[in-house]
């Protein structure tokens, strides 16, 4: 009787296991997610006009010992459209990317052209499939209203070192996995698309006649914190006060890596590109706390630049010193210029590696006699 019961039990167990395996193929377990809270869309419709030099641009790089052609222009145009769809009320493009004819009455036309693309390996030797690469992408954006009037223009700049893995897909090395190469260009394009979007709150203020005010030294910066880069009135100079500025971050030993305790200098070249005097301008710094605090240790923020005559160019030198650093981090410094009058030029973003400073070996002292 016991052997018979054991067999029945085994059959029942097999039936239950088979049923569970079948059920697992049909039953889905709900994913634990957090509720997405999207920021309000900017209430305008954007029409993109991608310049031919951007759309047709490609660059051939080395994969796993094989050439690979990056469709740079295609990736950039698709990314700008995707990011814009999440931020604006409406996004469209002129041929050959889209079918838009003219600009929406409540919208703007953005003309994007390519100025520079660089994809330069810095740690690669031979046919290594893992290496670091510096990615440089520079675009130029011109903003027009529905009537075709040029309102402003801005450079969009991305420079960052990334780690890539481009392995062979087969043991015969006839093809490479190049997804990370395309993904790196897509990340750069997404960063620039967000920079461009950050210009629009200021652009809308300008087109509607509103003028943002500048804070006094020591007061909090304006509420607008969208990533943006220097927006300037297009040439020739116009009456609306506006500036262009360039930035450069220098470390003491000039090895492009910031170390704990190291002195650093931020150079800012500012030019009044308008025909109107600017009573006062200020530099605001945001980003990685380690970097911002390095400058706060030397001078209070925001840093006053003084007044600017029409066409005047001036270079400011802001010094800082890094505090103690205990781990490697990727630092980001966001530099903005605040104007007392006119259109704010937005912000530049500088990225740099930060690492602990060199440790000093204790010096041995001979005992006194």
How does this model look, in words?
The protein has 369 residues and is an alpha+beta fold. The protein has two domains: 43-210, Lipoprotein like domain (Double Stranded RNA Binding Domain, 2-Layer Sandwich); 214-358, Immunoglobulins (Immunoglobulin-like, Sandwich), CATH 2.60.40. Helix content is 22%, strand content 37%. The chain contains five helices and 15 strands. A five-stranded mixed beta sheet has the order 4-1-5-6-7. Strands 9-15-14-11-12 form a five-stranded mixed beta sheet. Strand 2 (59-62) and strand 3 form a beta hairpin. The longest helix is centred in the middle third of the chain and has 29 residues, at 179-207. The protein is globular.
**Uncertain spans, ≥5 residues at pLDDT below 50?**
21-37, 211-238
CATH superfamily of the largest domain: Lipoprotein like domain
Shape from CA axes? globular
Count of DSSP H/I helices: 5
Give the radius of gyration: 27 Å
Tell me the fraction of residues in β-strands, as a range. 35-45%
Largest sheet: 5 strands, mixed
- Class by alpha and beta content: alpha+beta
Strand elements, count: 15
Order of strands side by side in the largest beta sheet?
A: 4-1-5-6-7
Q: Note the run of SSEs as H and E.
A: HEHEEHEEEEHEEEEHEEEE
Mean pLDDT: 77
CATH class of the largest domain: Alpha Beta
Q: Which CATH-level-2 architecture of the largest domain?
A: 2-Layer Sandwich
**In angstroms, what separates the terminal alpha carbons?**
97 Å
Number of domains: 2
Q: Which fold name corresponds to the CATH topology of the largest domain?
A: Double Stranded RNA Binding Domain
**Percent range for helical residues?**
10-25%
